[in-house]
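Intended use. Records like the one below are meant for learning the mapping from a protein sequence to its folded structure. Do not use them to infer anything beyond what is encoded.
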Amino acid sequence: MPTYKRIFVTGVNGHIGNHIVRDLLEHGYEVKGSVRSLSDPSRTKHVLQHAIELGCEERLELVEADVLDADPWQELLAGCDVLLHTATVYSIDASAETIIDTAMKGTAHLFNAAKSCGIQRIVYTSSVAAVGSMPKGVEKDESVWQENHALPYTKAKTDSEKLATKLAIELGLDLRIINPCAVIGGGFSRPTPSVAYFDDAFHGRFPLAPKFPMAFVHVKDVAIAHRRAFEVEQAEGRFILAPHHSLDMAHLCKRIRTLYPKSKSPKRALPNFLLPTAVLFDMLNGLRGQNRYLTRQVVKSLRSGDAFYSSKKAEDVLGMEWIDFDTAIRDTIEGFQ
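Structure written out for the chain above:
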């Protein structure tokens, strides 16, 4: 059985990435992690804090590199045993070119560099965005692929996962893929689209909650799944992480209000016929500098299917046991406080 010691993680300052760092350090691994820039302490302080709290600063090294740049990766990956590639642009308002190029070029650069320096095992962070929400009413497992590419992020995650699979076959790499749903929980330096609306809901910044289909997983469970994906020898292929599935935003908002009775989280759901009005309201909020959630493309994409996913493979192969939904909500809300 292979013994892994030094793990390379891209995008360690991200919500998923920094939790992976902590989990790996807690389990005795050495971690080398990349960020696009080391010049801004606010982007790395929370990552370094994990090692300080655990008393193992000597086991964490941060390096500066951009996945769009092919040049440094072979040198940076040298001496590492496993690659965990989490770096991505997770945004609904970044340019399509930035989102797609980061996913596609970054995957190609990292996989080719891993092959060149002798890394065989790679864990790749994809998303249920690459699985999709169709067919509606059918439990979706790892055999299902996204067919709706209207959103740049959805296209990027689907095409880059397919590219990762293709490169792994061509290069003879041992690839394991993690497909999480909406990743919630605290410990983020900047809110991702999966958690940003929690604070707005808590403070009543939107009066009604749309009934968009959603599934949720705690970020700590996502970190554990990444580690187990390379530790478990028989692991292979994709692993959906969607333990709290077949829900919607209206259900989430009601649960926030139940857990926090003094919050202003919406009590009522938004009827579907009012969605065009909600899109206009959201656009006006964007002009005022607030977060945007309901572009026309987002609404069209979310209404086309459901959030009915199976996490059985992750449970059976990786031994996943999930943090409960209420704890995940509480951790997310407290992440803003």
